[in-house]
Design brief:
The chain has 418 residues and is α+β, with helices and mostly antiparallel strands. Helix content is 27%, strand content 13%. The chain has 13 helices and eleven strands. Helix 1 runs antiparallel to helix 12.
């Protein structure tokens, strides 16, 4: 059984009490982002082959050399394109890369862009539980997201510490929009909200929770998403926005077609054994998507899926994704204290079970962002307090069964040891 005491939670988070207050440690210099969204000192791609040539060597001298040994002929050592941040490199407070928005958009003023889906695409999502929408975002938007991501990994935030230290990703941060203004502006002004409202056949879209994910090391085995924020399965829509070409050998998400209709996987589970009884109709129906920059993957939160990374866990190229969960009009707040789902709802808002989900902690992005919600975010009012975090996490040892919540912690243990 997993137990988390309130005292332990306070110790863990008290150092970050001002994590969402404007801080002089936050960088506002967009020049820190490199060509592909990361500064060279941390993210310079090492050559796959390192050789030296002695100009004085002659052909005769080379012939006299002993044949190369098996060790000499071995493949050069693979190195990560992105290094784990040192403890002292983490930042607190709000961050603003100061990026210029694409297409002449004026941040905080321009209306959000639109993108028209076909009825067929929407029906594919409803029937298969997942749909791949190609080319939603043009190269300008892709570069904007890469630059925002590059600034973030070069200026890592404290809220990324636990996920990055777990070795699950080279960099991962939840609720990135709360701390990095570039991502908030993306939600406010891009066509993302319009795409997702069509997928959900709804007239309102709010962000429930999000994640910036860079290189998933060895990947994630078969699982379903239960970190969707304080909402029900049916109120949520999962999304991925990809910034890079998926490698041919690994990294392509694979889904079990129609598995969002399964009724055998417990909603508290993370990993899924696709050999279990009740999944016979789904386990052979594999849908693999090799996404490209600017594509969106959209799926039902219950759809079972996986992502396989390189066997050694070393990414020599980038796999940058902005993902998360949005919710539809009429969504009610679900208090998930006592379950793993609480980890995607650690904010200090005042919503209670059954309240309408209207809050600056879950900002509306369609039909248009709300000025007051945006101002509260920019002022640092949208954040997490140590007391609220301790209160919510303490429920894990009381209200929930350890067996149910243990599935979430198995992600950290089993993935890190592989």
């Amino acid at each position: 059984m997993v137990k988390v005491s309130a005292a332990a939670a306070v110790i863990l988070f008290v150092v970050s009490a001002q994590a969402f207050s404007p801080s002089p440690l936050s960088s506002n210099n967009p020049s820190t982002a490199g060509k592909n969204g990361a500064a060279p000192p941390k993210s310079a791609l090492k050559s796959d082959v390192a050789t030296t040539v002695d100009p004085a060597s002659t052909a005769a001298q080379q012939q006299q050399q002993a044949p190369p040994s098996a060790t000499d002929m071995a493949s050069p050592k693979r190195e990560k394109i992105l290094k784990e941040p040192a403890l002292w490199e983490y930042n607190f407070g709000l961050q603003d890369p100061g990026l210029r928005m694409p297409h002449g958009i004026v941040a905080g003023q321009s209306a959000p862009e639109t993108y028209q889906l076909t009825e067929e695409q929407i029906q594919v999502l409803e029937e298969d539980g997942v749909v791949h929408i190609k080319g939603v975002f043009d190269p300008e938007w892709v570069q904007y997201l890469r630059d925002a991501t590059g600034h973030q990994v070069d200026n890592p935030h404290f809220w990324a510490f636990a996920g990055t230290a777990s070795k699950l990703y080279d960099y991962i941060q939840r609720n990135i929009w709360q701390t990095n203004k570039a991502f908030a502006n993306f939600y406010y002004h891009s066509a993302m909200g319009d795409v997702l409202r069509q997928c959900g056949r709804t007239d309102e879209i709010r962000v429930s929770t999000d994640l910036l994910m860079v290189n998933p090391n060895k990947g994630f085995k078969w699982h379903q998403d239960n970190q969707n924020g304080p909402i029900t399965w049916e109120d949520g829509i999962r999304f991925w926005i990809t910034m890079d070409e998926t490698p041919a050998e690994y990294g392509a998400p694979v889904y079990l077609k129609g598995s969002h209709r399964n009724d055998v996987v417990d909603e508290g589970a993370v990993f899924v054994d696709i050999e279990q009884n009740g999944l016979e109709d789904y386990k052979e129906k594999l849908l693999e998507f090799r996404t490209m920059p600017g594509d969106m993957l959209i799926w039902h939160p219950r759809t079972i899926h996986k992502v396989d990374g390189p066997s050694d866990g070393i990414w020599t190229t980038y796999r940058r994704v902005l993902g998360g969960t949005v919710c539809k009009a009429g969504t009610k707040y679900q208090d998930k204290r006592g379950s793993g789902g609480v980890l995607s709802d650690l904010g200090r808002h005042s919503l209670e079970q059954g309240d309408k989900l209207e809050s600056s902690f879950f900002p509306i992005i369609y039909p248009r962002f709300n000025d007051n919600e945006a101002k509260e975010r920019d002022s640092g009012k949208v954040g997490r307090s140590p007391r609220d975090i301790a209160s919510k996490l303490s429920g894990l040892a009381g209200k929930a069964s350890g067996d149910k919540f243990a599935s979430f912690f198995q992600v950290l243990g089993s993935q890190a040891k592989q």
